[in-house]
Structure formats: C-alpha cells, structure tokens
Amino acid sequence: MNMDAALQTFFTESRELLEDMESQLLQLEGIDEAQLQESLNAVFRAAHTIKGSAGIFNLDFIVAFTHVVESVLDRLRNQQIAIDEALVSLLLSCRDHIAALVDAAEAKEPPDVSAGEPLLAELQQYLAADAQPTSHAAATQVANTPPPFERMAADAVSNDCWHISVRFGLNSFRDGMDPLSFLTYLGTLGNLVSVTPLAEFIPALEQYDCESCYLGFAIQFASQASKQEIEDVFEFVKEDSELHIISPNSQLTEYIQLIESMPEIDQRLGEILLQCGALTAAELQRALSRQQQQQPTAPIGEILAHGDASLNPVLDAALTKQSKVRESLAKEQKSLRVDADKLDHLINLVGELVTAGAGTSLLADSLGDGNLCESVSILNGLLEEVRDAALKLRMVPIGATFSRFQRVVRDIAKELGKDIELQITGAETELDKSVVEKIGDPLMHLVRNAIDHGIESQATRLAQGKSERGEISLHAYHDSGNIVIEVGDDGKGLDPEVIRRKAIEKGLLDEQSNLSDEELFNIIFEPGFSTAAQVSNLSGRGVGMDVVKRNIADLRGRVEVLSQLGQGSTMRIILPLTLAIIDGFVIGVADEQYVLPLDTVLECLELNSAELDSTDEPYINLRGQVLPLIFLRDYLAVRGSKPRRQSIVVVQSGGQSAGIVVDRLYGEFQTVIKPLGKLFSRVGCVSGSTILGNGTVALILDIHGLLDAMIAYEQLQYRR
Amino acid sequence: MLTHHQAAGIDTVSFAGEMTIYDIENLATAFMPLIGQASNLVVDLKEVTEIDSSGAQLLMMARLERQRLDKAFSLVNHSVAVVNLFKLLGLLNWFDDPVLLSGDA
Amino acid sequence: MSKTILVVDDSASIRQVVSMTLKGAGYSTIEASDGRDALAKLTGNRVHLVISDVNMPNMDGITLLKELKARPDTKFTPVIMLTTESEAAKKEQGRAAGAKAWVVKPFNPQQLMAAVGKLIMP
Fold first, then answer.
1. Which of A179, A204, A326 is opposite residue B68, by nearest beta carbon?
2. What is the rounded (10 degree) CA torsion for A697, A703, A709, A710?
3. Domains in chain C, CATH or no CATH each
C-alpha cells in the first residue's frame, strides 16, 4: 500500500474524528447519564483511534500528546473523574492542539510541541488526582501477560472456527422453516466466516419440486458459543435435518465421519471442506485415503486407534486469505473515498458528453431520420441521468459546515459575555462540494455579525422582556433549483433609520434620497459600511459584509436581508444547486443565441404587436396581471430590423416576474457553464457562457441581474 | 410475478415483487419450462423486493440444469433483497455472476 | 416494515407478556384468545409467524395448526407451539399435525425471542 496515500487517509480521518470529538464535547453539558456515557465513549474512541493510527505513521509527537488526553478520557468514561465546564474547555483546547499537530504533520513542518505543554500540565492534574493506574499502564500489563496457549498463538487465526454442516429436511419450506432465518440467527451467536451452499442435493428439473427444500450448507463459524448453543439454533429442524457440528481443533476423524455421512457426495464434500477452509489439501488427502482403507463396516473407534490423529490447525493459509476476502466483501464499506480531482475530471467529461449529446440531437433532428431521433433521445435521457448522478457525487450535506459553528458561537459568546444558543436545522441538505468549501467564510462573517451586533447583552434582553439566552439559527433547505441558507438571530434587528444616518454620514447616500427599508438594508453590503457604534475585534471593522456579498455573488448566489426592529434579522443566502451544469432554455435575438436558466422560465407567449402599440409603456396584461417587458433586442442594443413575429418568455426570479421579448425560441438545452473572464465580471446581466451543440458560443443571461437592471431603470424614469 | 420476453435470440425473464415460498409454485410453473427451451437465458432480478431460500433454490436449480444442458445462463441486476440473501447463503460466490454492490443500499 | 406475529392464548396475561416482549423487539403483534378468534383475525392481515398455546377453549392449538396448513395464505407460515411439560400426549398429536417448534412454559423472554429469532428475521 502506498504510504503517502495512507497518510493522506490518516489526515482526513483524523480531521473527521476531531470534528466529531468537538461536537461531542460541545454537547456534553446538560445531557442525561446514558447519552453522556455514549458521548464520552465516542470522544475516547476518537482520541484512541488517532493515537493508534499516528503510531503507525511514526508521528510520535501526536501519539505522545494524544496519549495523555486519552488517559484522561479513559478516567472520565470510567467515572473516576467528573465532567465539568473547565474540563470540557481543556479538552476542547487539547482537541485544537491535536488538530494543529495533525496540520503540522501534513504540512511537513516541525510541530509546535511547546504549545501543548501547559495543556499537558493541566491534564496531569486530572491524572494525578488519585493513584489508580492509567489506561496506559493497564495496557502495558495486558501486553506483558503471556498468551495462555503458545501453540494457538502460532496459528490462531486459522484455527478458531467451528465447522457446521447442515442439510435441511425436505419439508423445511412447507413447515415455514427457512434456512435463511436459521443462518441469520446463527450469525447473532458469532461470526459466519464462510457459508458454502451444498447444491448437490438439488435434483434435475424433471424431479424438482419447488416447495421442497434440498439445501445444505457448510459453514465456518467463529464463536465463543458452546456446542449445545449451536445445536440449539437448529433445534426446530433437527428431526428432519442432518446436522454435524465439529468443534475448533477437532480430530480429523470427525471430518471423516462427516464425509461418510453423505456418501452420495463424499468427493464433492471433501472439496467443499477444502474450499470453505475447514481442511487443508494434505489433511483431506489423508482423510479420504484412510476412509477408503477402512471397510464400510469398520467401527469409528478403529480409525481412532490408528490415529496419528493429533490434527494440526486445519486451515490452509491461502484459503484463509480467500475467506478473509469474502469476509471483507460482506462488510463492504458503505462509502468510498475518491480523490476530488478524479471527481472533477469526471464532471468535466460528463459536461463535454452533455454538450456532444446536444449536438448529436440537433444533427439527428436536422436529418429527420425517425429511428435515429428515437435512439438519440434515449441516449440523451440516459445522459441526463448520468449527469445528475455525477453531480450528486459532489453533493455533500451542509451539516459538517454548520456544526463547526457550534464552537464559534460558544467561544465568541463567552468572550462577549453573552448567552447564546445555536439552532441548526436542515443539516442534511446537500449542496455542491465546491459551494460548501466556499460558503464557510461568508457564513462565518454572518454568524459573527449576528453574535456581535444582532444579539443584545443579557441585561438589555431581559429589559426588553426577551429570554436571557439569545438564539442564532442556521437553516438550510432546497427551494426550486436553489439552496437557501438562512442565518437568523432573535436580536435587536436592523434599524433603517440608523442605517440611513450612517450611510449619509459615510457619503454612501444622498440626504434627499427616499429609500424603502429593504433598499436601506441592502446598504449594509456596500463597501465601507459598518453599523456598530463600537468597533469590536470580532466584526464591525467595516470589512465583511461587502466581502460576504462578493463571495456569494462569485457562487452565482445572492443575499437578502429580512429584519424586524426589535425582533431580529435573517440573512438569506440563495445559491444555485450546482455550479457546473444547468438546464437551459435557448432563445435567439438577431443571429445570436442566448441561454436562460430553465428553472426561471414560466411560460412562452407570442407577442401581440397590436396590443403593444396601443400604449407607450412596455408591459402587457397577462391574465389580469401587469407583466413588464424587457425588449432584449433594445436592451442589448442589437442592430437590424425586428422580425415580423416576436415571442415573450415569461421569467421569474426572487418573486419578480417579467416578460423577455425575443426573436426566436429554440427550446431546452443542457448547458455546461463556462465562467466568463475577469474582464466581464462587471457585466451585470450575463452570468457565464456556454458552447451550444453546433459549436457556437452563447451567453447565459442572469435573470436576477436583468430584472434588477429593469427595476433600477424604471425607478430612474420614475424619478425624472 | 414473472415476465418473459425474447429479443435477438436472448430470452429475458424478469422476476418482480416477492420470490418467496408463498409465490414459488406460480413462479416455478411459469419459469421451469423456459429453463429447458431457451437458448440464451438471462434472469433479471431488478424488481425482486423479497426473496427467501425457496426463491434462491429455484435459481440454483435453473443454473445447475442449464449447466447440464451446456447452455448460457446469467443473473443480472440483483436487487438489494437478492444481494442480501445471496451474501448470507454464500451464493454470491456460488453463482459467479457479477453483482453490483450498491453503496448506500 | 416490521413483521407481524399472531399471538394466540386464552390467558390474557400470557398474551400480554408475549406481546410486550415481541413489541419490545420491534415486531407488530395481533392477539387472539383462541383458535377460532385467531382465524377470524387472520383475515386481511399478512402474518409472518404464529405463536399459539395448545390448550384453549373453542378451538385448540392443534386444530388451529391444521386449519392454518389448509389455508393458502398461511400454509407456509411458521408456528411456535406453547406447551407445558405435562402435555406429552398433546405434543405427540401436535407433532403428527406438523408442529416443529415448541417452547415450554414457563419460559423467559430470552427463550421466547430465541425461538422467534430462529424462525423469522427481525
């Protein structure tokens, strides 16, 4: 095994364990006894696993430190010492130190061992509290005790198994006795190392009765159970079945007896014993030849008397290996680690495939061959599934990101002397891994802001009749092709007046301007704006909210602010589900094609010019609703004459609807988004580009940006 | 339930729903004649929601019979229920058809 | 979907103990006070296992077993017979009728669950 790859796994695994450790530690206070024990065990296991794995990689500085932590945890879970807040804080600091050591190991930098020394000194106090031996000492003692049976130790692995041969009675099925449930039950008493079906009793088709049971099994069974207990498993079928149970390390004669009991398949049974690992080839040879030497009538005792019968361990090394492979198959891991680069490569290829598929589809349409079209459409259907499945591979639940904030909230709240609880909902909501990676920082800013500016001091809260403990909530959910993440607090809320004054003071706003509350709220995202009267070291330095907005915009998302003075605020981040591929709707203006995200498109109408000419205002009456129109041709300043017929695409985004007037409709198209260069980052209404099936480049219109531009334009008109 | 269709010289038999002792007689009555007749026999287990030893045994018999006849036989699209049963009874190795072990079954 | 077990006994307390034990292990139960009641309660319910007392008024356990074997929807359903040490003759009758699984009263919950575990999966 490649050591570097294994080491990488160690780093990933350690981080996961450390995260788990943190969340367990944070919930230690105020849970009941049973849960407490469980959590302590989990924390202990985490430390134990990290220590153990670090040892394999010779990361002695991790082993040395973690060992002391583990010892304290061991005493904790054995209730030799009690948990209190100081100890939780200490353990959290220790966790951080282990994380730092792991980071240093990964960066191949010398670890800052000295940072751990004060922690070790504190830990020692918990260990010194009384004179009980620590787990380390205990472990050493165990290790020094010689194993009870030397001979076993030499080949213990292969030697531990019972051998069970069972042939179920013909009427087992009819009696409601399914071999399956007996084997399942047997599995509860130990480990089914291997199960080999004996198919030899199944008759040929003509004689086959589908309700009769012809099954038998040869089972290698590792268990501490007694022979009686194993026999009892088959209690209900023993009358009609043939059952042989051979204890571990049995005499060869017992196997001979077994082989003799099924004369019709003795040769094959021998093979099965070999195959399932009960006998080695040499032993089988011996058994069979001895069996042949004996007269059928010869008493078993005679064979015994001949015995050089001190039977060796019966498992052949190669066969052990085989059954181990089988065992590991049974314990098949439910998840698989894949290198992120490989995944990205796959997504890229799928993207190309989707583009190529769309091209083929166009080509097939133009050829008009029915069979070809049908086959292409099947192909594209599958492609779509492959696309979705591939994208799902990158989806990870946001929970891990959320739970990191438990610590942040706890630490910052403590620092500020506030009592704050973090509520997390929708932790299972999945989003694209690349989004998860990039959303951490903006979320951190928002959460810090909420703690710092949002939640009032305890005294203020009490004075206002609120509960002493403030609440911050992180909430994630899916909403029509988008992921919504909300950071809420039940604090003082945003005061539009304060924002207004501040904005004027900072020169961001004209004194005459008359803005709605929402517009005022949005000013907090302007560069250089900070509402905190007192600048703390956490937030409120005036950098942050504008960065938050920019970061989220980079993810093709947007932020909304909901706030009620005195009740609290909610920052709502709306993000597209994935970054790589969207379902697009292709439209045309003049000779150019453009793509609208399909999930924003509501319907398409024909533009009735007569209706429009009657008025100067660019809107139509859509089933009694006013629908403002955007003439894409005018908006994009496309030259040339309008075609005779134009269409309206009704789109919706953020609760706003509008009709986009275009020359032609081309229909749905799977769109692989290619980002635009930096040069175009200021172009508000275009979010990217794509390559169409016929090879031409099309711009992807940002509906939200387009609508914003339209509203801004209207307001400008209105003010004039 | 069992459906059978034939295309390009391949007989595909799809079992669906329960393959347990309660249904085995009906299934066997429909299935057994095909074991001898078909030249290439593919058994699709995708829609099997429940299977017990009697269902497994029917498939084992089919396989043995096809081997005797020296004709092609394969099991495909093992459902989760089938894979679980095969695992327990040691049948994954016995039938050496490729099985996809789904990750989150 | 949890599996359903039909518990038949004329003693309400035994029914209750058996039912509670089974429910505690995650099974659903239907209770019936005798063989006739059991057959009535079977209608419309898929039952994975029947646990029945032998000695009951109206219809005893052995007759119930024969009835179950005659019905298409229960003929392959496993049956556990509850019996006492003293009912040797009954046990012989039961054996003849095809009863395979016996649990001797008084039994503790572990013994009962072991018998159930051998016959159906959880």
1. A204
2. 110
3. 4-119 (3.40.50.2300)
